[in-house]
């Protein structure tokens, strides 16, 4: 770790874990975090959770698992070049979607509506809940007992009301400070990854085409460049080349701009980077505009496409009816889940039952949620 920059997170100065335990013998603290994330059940379930397209719609579309791996790959590159802590960056990247519901954002939005009177539902907070409480793998503590820095990075967004309940972890939202640099890298890598792979999946699904994408400046620039070099190449291979070029241009811009910001502010340590008054990991203004234009295009042409909206409507109905049935009658849940929900209700009579049901639904994969819906509502399903 001696090769990393002074403003990077250091294993030796970590703010520690919620529960004391002996340090690792042959790994750093953030390596241990990453390894615990990879081995946890919530991480494995990401394989069957929707990114945009429901898992059974095709084997080639991204899932939450492949998305998280792509985020980690991009974030590691940036962290390595900037001298940040690569292990911590990877841990945050791999864990950032652990609390996501089945059926992507449609599932999250519907579960939040169901939880409106019970404290709401937000997947960043749920990811934190997964690593702090819900994973049940260790004898001496609940959750994964990750370091403060990994937990901070997982919690990208938080309302002031929720921040007040989180102690030291929520303090930066109240004080309007930044997360650590590694968390900033993972956050932007997340948006770069999902924008570009949603372009790829949107093309594969036939929701958009290359001509429509030429309306977006960053795509048009690289599409023109690729066609000039390979005018006879088929559209599919051209699209791969353009997406590679877009990602490369964004990551290159991110590294160059962030390096300048770090040199200008010259933080002496990780805490000074948090106190800089602005995020030091950043795009240039022109690249940010291009990035946001692509994001807006995807919102209008892919996420609001009638085929995606139909899937979203079905997902919302599935989540809503599962929540209503299970909240109305917790005996419909499997034994272990029911017992945890009863314990939550006893501890928090007003909201505990709903939170237990939300934990159960949020942990489902797409196909498990569909199967559970059938088991509860289809008279021909007997178990």
What does this structure look like?
The mean pLDDT is 93. Helix 5 (104-114) packs parallel to helix 16, helix 7 packs parallel to helix 10 and helix 16 (306-328) crosses helix 18. The protein is built from 19 helices and no strands. It folds into 2 domains: 25-307, Hypothetical protein af1432 (Orthogonal Bundle), CATH 1.10.3210; 308-377, no CATH class. It is globular. Helix content is 63%, strand content 0%. It is an all-alpha fold and 383 residues long.
CATH topology of the largest domain: Hypothetical protein af1432
Distance between the termini: 53 Å
The quaternary state of the protein chains shown equals single chain
* CATH superfamily membership of the largest domain: Hypothetical protein af1432
Tally of separate helices: 19
What is the radius of gyration computed over CA atoms, rounded to a whole number of angstroms? 22 Å
Number of E-type strands = 0
CATH architecture of the largest domain: Orthogonal Bundle
Number of structural domains: 2
Give a short account of the largest sheet.
Answer: none
Stretches where pLDDT falls below 50 for ≥5 residues? none
Overall shape: it is globular
| Mean pLDDT over all positions | 93
Q: Name the structural class.
A: mainly alpha
Question: What portion of residues is helical?
Answer: 55-70%
Percentage of β-strand residues: under 5%
- Succession of helices and strands: HHHHHHHHHHHHHHHHHHH
What is the CATH class of the largest domain? Mainly Alpha
